[in-house]
């Protein structure tokens, strides 16, 4: 890569980081609620009171309340007739909401609203006198998560893909020609480079639908069969399989910036395969033949992995995918029956 190109790529990456980095001086949540309601945060520190709703019915939760990108659930807590608002990091609990010992009444009545906010992205919530919670845009999110909080996501991944049964590429030749007394040497490279890119939408906190592109590198096979004075040689390939993918994903925040996901869908792929066969007698070429075939199909694709978000807009991911390739053919190369395991790492952009 030329120096100017490296500078341009580096500048783009820095720009993405700057775009993705929340402004801590401005990162705050404005809460609209009945006057006098206390607001608490439970994140890296124990339960801390961070604000009280003023006589104008609003309060601002300060920028240093928690780390950017932290996902917080809004919980309405009522103790002795007094309501408070508690923002609890996913995976943590409010000690006032834990079960009371046997025979005792719970200290407080705690009502998880089902509304989640991401610190540095969601900037306002409203809580009514009855405890109903809405996001800043006025879209009510019901318990369990609703469809009001829609985001977007972009994945760019590089990978290594391995054909699950690469040894089978040589088995047929070894068995067939070996039975005829030929000494067969055969190698097959079933580990190839891969690349994918996806764009999609996230909704209901847990779900995403993505459309993308997947490319798997070329698989090759080289074989030589000798029974003096005859020598057969075969050089074959299954060309790069490329196509459009459509997948649905389930995404769950494990802790803070860590998100685990599983996905599944289909891809429409195409690839060209071919081979060259030669027959030599006493090292003299007696015959040769070139074979070629185009293949395509719609087959399943599935995967799972982990994301880590540095900010609500930029992160990295890694995981494994399985891509199936199966196509019926009347061509000289025969049917396609392959499965690739793809180990990937990549960059993620979006509002998660």
H-E order:
HEEEEEEEEEEHEEEEEEEEEE
Structural class: mainly beta
Question: Rg, please?
Answer: 29 Å
Instruction: Give the terminus-to-terminus CA distance.
Output: 33 Å
Strand content: over 45%
Poorly predicted segments: 1-26, 138-148
Beta strands, count:
20
Mean pLDDT: 81
Which word captures the global form?
A: rod-shaped
Helix content: under 10%
Profile the largest sheet. Answer: 8 strands, antiparallel, barrel
Q: What topology, given as strand order, has the largest sheet?
A: 10-12-13-16-17-18-19-20
The number of helical runs is 2
Report on the structure:
Helix content is 8%, strand content 59%. The protein has helices at residues 3-20, 168-178; strands at residues 29-32, 38-42, 48-52, 58-61, 71-79, 82-89, 109-118, 124-127, 133-135, 151-163, 183-189, 191-203, 207-216, 219-227, 230-238, 241-255, 258-281, 284-309, 314-327, 336-351. An 8-stranded antiparallel beta barrel has the order 10-12-13-16-17-18-19-20. The protein has a 5-stranded mixed beta sheet with strand order 3-2-6-5-7, with no helix packed on it. The chain has a 4-stranded mixed beta sheet with strand order 4-1-8-9, with no helix packed on it. A hairpin with a 5-residue loop joins β8 and β9 (133-135). The protein starts with a helix and ends with a strand. Residues 1-26 and 138-148 have low confidence and may be disordered.
